[in-house]
């Protein structure tokens, strides 16, 4: 009489992969939400045309032009062209100008009603007060804009995205491993049953 034997493990055990997929997706969402919601805490907002005095520590800084922003209860929306807007910085103590350049990477954010993108970067070698000014030069007067200055903001945004993607793909990879292990063990069990002449189910 034929002996009927169920193949183990069951394909239902592939469901053990679901928690890994869900964990990766949830952690991905949490990492992005938490990281990006606080990244603007690193930025100091200044309204231009005009000038401001900033207390800066040594480090690399990024300058962001904010398209949507709120400063002191006033809402700013930069829909007009800001062509011709130029910025400059100098040390208040020594008068030494600080070199500013285009950013090495294009970084943007859109959180808490604020959106912006990187437009300039500069480095500070010595702690102190620095005069930061932006205007339209000889061009006709342009719109008021909000510029945000901060150290580490670009790095924080990049790190947040990388950490989120790592969590997402890490959870997915773990889930795939579980499925492959179940399938592999089933195929090995099928081969053993086939060699013994048993009926596989």
CATH class of the largest domain: Mainly Beta
Number of structural domains? 2
Average pLDDT level: 83
Number of strands: 13
How do the helices and strands follow one another from N- to C-terminus? EHEEEEEEEEEEEHE
Query: First CA to last CA: what distance?
Result: 16 Å
Rg measurement, Å: 28 Å
Shape: elongated
Uncertain parts: none
Q: Strand-residue fraction?
A: 35-45%
Helix content: 25-40%
How many separate helices?
2
CATH architecture tag of the largest domain: Sandwich
| Assembly category | single chain
Examine the coordinates and then state which fold CATH places here, giving the name of the CATH topology of the largest domain: Jelly Rolls
How is the biggest beta sheet arranged? 7 strands, antiparallel
Question: How would you sum up this structure, described in words?
Answer:
This protein is α+β, with helices and mostly antiparallel strands and 201 residues long. It has two domains: 4-32 and 161-200, no CATH class; 43-152, Jelly Rolls (Sandwich). Helix content is 33%, strand content 36%. It has helices spanning 18-39, 153-196; strands spanning 4-5, 44-48, 50-56, 59-71, 74-77, 86-91, 97-98, 100-101, 108-111, 114-124, 128-135, 145-151, 199-200. Strands 2, 4, 5, 8, 9, 10 and 12 form a seven-stranded antiparallel beta sheet that branches. A hairpin with a 2-residue loop joins strand 9 (108-111) and strand 10. Helix 1 runs antiparallel to helix 2 (153-196). The longest helix has 44 residues, at 153-196. The two termini are 16 Å apart. The mean pLDDT is 83.
Short description:
33% of the residues lie in helices and 36% in strands. The chain is of the alpha+beta class.
């Amino acid at each position: 009489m034929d002996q009927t034997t169920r193949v183990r493990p069951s394909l239902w055990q592939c469901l053990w992969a679901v928690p890994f997929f869900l964990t990766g997706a949830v952690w991905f969402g949490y990492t992005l939400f938490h990281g990006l919601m606080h990244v603007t805490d690193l930025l100091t907002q200044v309204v231009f045309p005009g000038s401001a005095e900033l207390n800066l520590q040594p480090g690399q800084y990024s300058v962001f032009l904010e398209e949507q922003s709120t400063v002191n209860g006033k809402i700013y929306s930069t829909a007009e062209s800001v062509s011709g807007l130029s910025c400059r910085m100098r040390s208040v103590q020594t008068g030494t100008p600080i070199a500013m350049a285009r950013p090495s990477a294009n970084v943007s954010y859109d959180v808490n009603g604020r959106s912006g993108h990187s437009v300039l970067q500069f480095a500070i070698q010595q702690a102190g007060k620095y005069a930061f000014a932006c205007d339209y030069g000889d061009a006709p007067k342009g719109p008021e804009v909000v510029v945000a200055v901060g150290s580490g903001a670009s790095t924080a945004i990049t790190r947040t995205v990388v950490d989120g993607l790592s969590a997402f793909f890490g959870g997915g990879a773990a889930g795939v491993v579980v499925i492959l292990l179940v399938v592999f063990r089933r195929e090995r069990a099928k081969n053993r049953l086939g060699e013994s002449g048993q009926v596989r189910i």
